[in-house]
Amino acid sequence: MCKSERSGTPEDMETSADTFNVTFLPYDVTVGVKKGTTVLEAAHKAKIYINSICGGDGICGKCKVILDSGNVDSEPTINLKREEIQENYILACGSKVLDNLRVLIPTESRLEGSKILSDQDAKRFASFLSDDKGSTRFDLSPLIRRDYLELDVPSMDDNVADHERLYFAICNKTGVDADTMQTGYRVLKGLPAALRESNWKVTTTMGVRGKTNELIEVQKGDENISNLGVAIDVGTTTIVTHLIDLNTLQPIASEATYNSQMKYGEDYIQRIIYSVENDALDTMQDSVVNDINGLINLLVKNSGKNLHDITAVVCSGNTAMTHFLLALDPANIRKEPYIPSANNIPVIRAAEIGIAINKRGLLYVMPSVAAFVGSDITAGILALGLYEKEELSLFIDIGTNGEVVLGNSDWMMCCSASAGPAFEGSDVRHGMRAAKGAIEKITITKNNGSFDIEYKTIDNVKARGICGSGLLDCVANLVRTGIIDRSGKFQKSIDSQRLKETDEGLEFVIVKQEDADLNTDIVITQADISNLIRSKAAIYAAVSTLLKSMDMSINDIEKVYIAGGFGNYLDVRSAITIGMLPDMDHSKISFVGNTAAAGAKLALLSKDAFYAAGEVASNMTYFDLMGNNKFMDEFMSSNFLPHTNVAEFPSVLNEINSGD
Amino acid sequence: MALPVVAEKWSNSVKELTIGATQAEGGTREKTVTVGGAKCVPFIECDGETGNRPAIAMDVLDYVPNDWPDILRKPIEDVIDEPAKWAKKCVDEFGADLICLKLDSIHPDKGDKSPEEAADTVKSVLEAVNVPLIIWGCELNDKDNQVMPKVSEAAKGEKCLMGYAAQDNYKVITAVCLADGHSIITQAPLDINIGKQVNILVSELGFPLDRIVMFQSTGALGYGIEYTYSIQERERLAALSGDNLMAFPVISNVGFEAWRAKEAKAKDEDVAQWGAQEDRGPMWETITATTLIQSGVDIVRMYHPKAVAAVKKYIDELTS
Questions:
Q1: Pick from B167, B171, B200: CB nearest A646
Q2: Are the Cβ atoms of A657 and B171 closer than 8 angstroms?
Q3: Is the pTM of this model over 0.80?
Q4: Chain A residue numbers touching B201 (CB-CB < 8 A)
Q5: CATH assignment of A114-137+226-375?
Q6: Which one of A480, A485, A534 makes the best mutation probe of the B interface by having the most chain B beta carbons within 10 Å?
Q7: CATH number of the domain located at residue range(s) B16-319 in this protein
Q8: Which of A251, B12, B68, B295 fits a 20 to 30 Å CA distance from A437?
Q9: pLDDT value at position A138?
């Protein structure tokens, strides 16, 4: 970056011959950059988020901003429509700063505030907090425990050394075998003073490290000292944290935010490329660690707790995310033969990677299975307890990568298919994440030749876009009402004012401009539908290839769990109508929300659960789809609504044939 | 030791379809042609009934094909501008089982003829010959959608085979075939999934499954025939294994594709080492046809009388 030679003036605000100020509206944040810097880079520097899927390659066209004043050198692009160019829209990644600029970031390119999202997540995970089915499955003994001890005062008759005296007391109180205990030099050195100053009444903090128990801290005895832990789902898009009281085993609060690494690319492959090409592994780590620290601070502040009392952090996330978190080289994840640096990351001190909790507190990372099946999946299996059930279950985690796990208490197979970000709201004209103003539910009904559309937005405000569950409903309703045919093509013959022909093809109006919180109609385009069909096809093909590889059919499955960031709700019927899920009895299918966070929480509350996660990860067999021809065949025949082999979807046939 | 019989047992069969209607059936044909019905892979008699013999449809154009090589024009030179006479010659002299009337002249670049003119042509051909008719549009969606309703109406009762319904344009032709009692051709671009998808789309409009013929774009010998072969083979195996939406007779566009190959159309003076075009061209067409018949094609559209004769003989030998 452009490090200033001059001292005295802050680098971000100066102006000289080849340095210009870029002001971002509506935030009114100004940053100084060198001539030729792109507007997107300037936004990164100003720590302002602008939508960007391709990470600045000029392909996705999502980083649209409006030039309010000043001059830029813009590369020609097909991603802006004529009207947009007339309204001074530019692509932030393809426009170089030539002047002092004022740039307005329009609603669709903005990130909605994290508070809103956190409310959503708090709601979504409330069910997991109150209904901890897992709790009965494990002895609830947290990974880190704090114990108040009153030691026998030494005498000529009781001349055991300080250290052994403490071990004995811990052993008596907790039942932990003294042979497994370890003490660091720093703690040992301070021990004699600590014991005597506290008059032999101390509180010890002890944490699980592999098969041993580390004596982390000995402090003055306090019967009421609190012991807190944080469970974190480090998602590609969203980071979710839960603060838990490890003494009472009760949840205290939760907070979530977007992963600020998004500015380096919306999927993790893009971010790996960015970090390798720009030698930016530390930047990636800083970015995620800052997000986590921000959330932890918020948790502590809002609940009136003490940061020093947080002794443990448990993280789950896909393999790339855990690599970024620990600044492990992620380059080999995306290169054949796809080898991660580590699946089982040893326990380290959280402070070592910059997570600010108790300075001797420990960081636990849930174990991963393979390069493309991360610890979020292990955590999900742990949370749902699939590996303990005799019934054959299918677990589908729908994200940019769709992961599928099939198995029961005897065996488990998993695979991962690139589904693309369509159901997360990317690659779709008016797609968005499950945040305030997102349409999460749509019903279209035919009414005397015209179409009535009912929808519901998150928080019941004016619509800003459509999130995953809404898109799913949308495609299902379009095909049910015959607005699109089974290939996903709009039917001009429906003769509706909502169906419009534009330069880019046909599009269907879901919300008219006057009812939307945008300066345009909210539409679904022919290209959107194709992207959504491809995404659902990848998920179905992964499920079906995995089943066939085990010589099984969907009828053998007794339970299906759907996890993912769809919002609060997912209409199973819609998912079957479009052929994303196999046609089966709805009562077998449950939508389980974010299981990655639930699993991390469970591990935090029970070391047995953490050990079990290790077993789950090492017992799971990874089934590669990338080199699998059958997967490609399955994918091709899934590119239809619901599927080319319609016989696999008898209930959908009935539904559509009985429609009209 | 005697060789064990290793006959396959198939669970399904290809649907049987009769093209053309006699007076008794409400039409004016003296002959009808029945295709399909196979209960086994092509010509493997020990597995089951091989079904009806493959039929040869000769192409007749309503637009003088100036781009055809002389060798191809020669046999029909005298009737080339009169579709009815051309058709009659194909039936009477060359032994065509069916006529495939290709409505090239409705294409905006080839005369842009009106739906009424096209309907008149169809009527004249129906009067001139006593065999069933296949009617093929100009493959331009909008124009076909204008013309086919008229043409279909003009041939009502004759139980023609009309083409074609494609993934992006299937509604009009399906509706008119349904209304006028014709059978339909469903087209796909050498893609087994799309092939089936078009069948689904057409059948969902209420079109009966026993009036469908499938058409995968054809590749000639040396120009992708192996793809066509393999697609046809997969379709047939799917049909026999129980997939009802694939269990239809199949048509192939042999003449047009074979005569696009330079091996067929290059003149003698340009490629003397390849042998006389008089033999070479028809041979190219013959081999394309016989190969595809082996893969299970039920109707072959052909051009040259010599090739037609050779393929007829080949079918005779296979089915006798």
A1: B200
A2: no
A3: no
A4: 485-487
A5: 3.30.420.480
A6: A485
A7: 3.20.20.20
A8: A251
A9: 78
